[in-house]
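Re-running the complex after MR caught last week's input typo. The corrected sequence lines follow. Everything else is unchanged.
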Amino acid sequence: MTFERNVFINCPFDNEYFPILRSILFCLVYLDFTPQISETTDSGANRLSKLKDLIRTSKYSIHDISRVELNSEGLPRFNMPLECGIDFGAKMLGPPKLRTKIFLILEKERHRYQGFISDISGNDIRSHNNDPERAIQNVRDWLKLNERKSLDFSSNIWLVYNEFLYDLTEYAKENHFDPHHINSITFMDLIELMVTWKIGWDERNHEIAG
Amino acid sequence: MTKESVTKNKGSLRIAARSSSDRLHIVPTNKGWSVKREGAIRATRIYKTKSEALSGAIAFHDHSAIVIHAKDGSIEQWPK
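Corrected-run output:
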């Protein structure tokens, strides 16, 4: 687990958003980065303490502020902007290492953020339109811009991700969980399954190339 | 199966990713409908519509199992 390869993910934890989150996690694993995400079961002081560790150990951060609208009780969802603010604070006020942190802000629509959180203008802000393929493109292109290394095209990652989902769904049937429900397995388990699948995928391609 | 043991059999996922298959995946993309052979890195061909992609996949290899994906990547239609 190295600072340079860790990507902190701050996003909504709900089933409607899960297809976007899952595609982002896969894209990171596919490109050999390590997603850093708190679990849905973490709460209160424990959650903030974990967030502090995730922020401190990650060079990259993805903040998705696409779901800040009012919930069913008429209350705004402030967790994402709060965590985004903590991360900005770490970058601006923390030790030199944390000042190298790089952020991607994901939004539902372009320029919508200017109506409620305009202070983040000037950062890398991209819209995914609630489309997992666009989310993969956003993340891949952002990493390409900052890593300046050869990375597979996002269109290819999207196709490989679909193949992974087929295998994951078969695996889920055999192992009795719902692959499309956010609370069915932990994020740690999901990431572990993605990493395992990617190892097999790489082995297959090495065999073909070799 | 409990959450704690959900990765216990993960080796089978590694095998699934490694294995060769004739399975074809029809995937909606922002450029159209891609037909991709399992394990390939790139699409075999991109079609304008899902029905064209399905016809193309059948013509490409009529013995292959065909998987049709939904816009979020999940499985819309399993192989028959």
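None of the earlier attempt is carried over here. The mean pLDDT of chain A is 91. The interface with chain B takes residues 19, 22-23, 131-134, 152, 155-156, 158-171, 174-177, 180, 185-186, 189, 192-193, 196-201, 203-205, 207-208 of chain A (CB under 8 Å).
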